[in-house]
Design a protein that fits this description.
seven-stranded mixed β-sheet, 15% strand, Aspartate Aminotransferase, domain 2, single chain, 2 domains, Aspartate Aminotransferase, domain 1
């Protein structure tokens, strides 16, 4: 496989140094969680090889409220990133074909590229409100299509897919003997009414998620993939065993204890997101040099600068970073024009978000 570093990771705050980023609007999650009520006694925890599928109680907890799936359909992974890697490398070879929604989280594109398979893009547009067109997907399916890949709520736009649309795409996948990967890492942060985990709705759907985005626990590296297909699950398990065998039992225990109390934590998280979402809306109403499709889920949005034809975007981002100590995710992180930017509104405090948005406006004053 021909691996290449992803620009989104090269320029990530943890790589350039958090101390250099005063107003961090790049993050695609809530802020890293600090909590004091997890009772973890490492001295009483056997540091053994864990269950290769993952801690049984954790797997049960993840799917306890859903029909059609149970703990045996859940594979615990080292974050969602490894789950995505397992799915791509299990289902795709060089002679295979993938359909992927774009823009998208980079791994959903770069791993298939490293494999060398054929890729068709279903490009979302601002003008169509970043909505997925089922007929566009249908038109790109080939005899060797093995996987359709999307994120929901969508990264980087924050758009959602209706349950009806999701099921239409799942039926399309089933009709053509392929699978639908749904990266659901923002599911718990849906701003409207949530529907069940995708894998519980249709046997052709593979769900991937983690505790990193919605719960702010990226440091414990716990994610999962879910499928009703037992033969496929066995292949995913084989891949996991050959890559990292099992997860850290410490990480799994932390995730289990946290998710056991998630209803205690989620109201605070959602109140924070709601307040920041309101601040974002107030800013975009007054910042007439930019336009945005308002996000409906997750903690990211994807606005763009209007009338950018004569604007030096390299200068804009350099000025924003160096003069205003404010960082966003440039459009090129997602193979989009540079006048688009991903703004993460879940990570910063409300004050930091307000200042960061104000700095974007000041930088536009400097560069327009």
């Amino acid at each position: 496989m021909d691996y290449k570093r992803m620009i989104i990771e090269v320029e990530a705050p943890e790589q350039i140094g958090y101390e250099k980023v005063k107003y961090n609007l790049t993050e695609s999650s809530i802020s890293d969680t600090v909590f004091g009520d997890i009772k973890l006694d490492i001295n009483s925890l056997k540091l053994c090889y864990g269950d290769h599928l993952g801690k049984a109680e954790l797997r049960s907890l993840i799917v306890t409220e859903f029909k059609n799936i149970n703990a045996e359909n859940v594979l615990i992974t080292a974050g969602a990133a490894s789950a995505l890697f397992i799915v791509a490398t299990t289902l795709l070879e060089k002679e295979d074909h993938l359909i992927v929604i774009r823009p998208n989280y980079a791994s959903n594109i770069e791993t298939p590229r490293a494999i060398g398979c054929e890729i068709s893009y279903c490009d979302l547009s601002f003008e169509s409100r970043f909505e997925i067109n089922v007929e566009d997907i249908r038109s790109q399916i080939k005899s060797n299509t093995k996987l359709i890949s999307l994120t929901h709520p969508h990264n980087p736009t924050g758009m959602i897919i209706s349950q009806d649309t999701l099921l239409q795409i799942a039926e399309l996948a089933a009709e053509h003997n392929c699978f639908l990967l749904v990266d659901e890492t923002y599911r718990e942060l849906h701003l409207g009414e949530m529907y069940p985990i995708g894998a519980s709705l249709h046997p052709s759907i593979i769900t991937v998620s983690s505790v990193s985005k919605a719960y702010g626990l990226p440091g414990i590296r716990i994610g999962w993939l879910i499928t009703q297909n037992t033969m496929l699950f066995e292949k995913f398990l084989a891949a996991k065993e050959q890559i990292f065998l099992c997860n850290s039992v410490i990480d799994e225990e932390i995730a289990f204890q946290y998710l056991s109390k998630k209803e205690t934590y989620l109201p605070f998280i959602k109140n924070h997101i709601s307040a920041n979402h309101k601040t974002l809306l107030e800013w975009i109403k007054t910042e007439t040099r930019m336009e945005m499709i308002l996000p409906e889920g997750g903690v990211v949005c994807f606005p763009r600068i209007k009338n950018d034809e004569n604007m030096d975007m390299k200068k804009f981002y350099t000025t924003l970073n160096s003069k205003y100590e404010t960082f966003v995710g440039p459009g090129y992180w997602f193979e989009m024009p540079a006048h688009y930017m991903r703004i993460g509104f879940g990570w910063p405090s409300n004050k930091e978000l307000s200042e960061g948005l104000k700095n974007i406006s000041l930088c536009l004053d400097d560069c327009c």
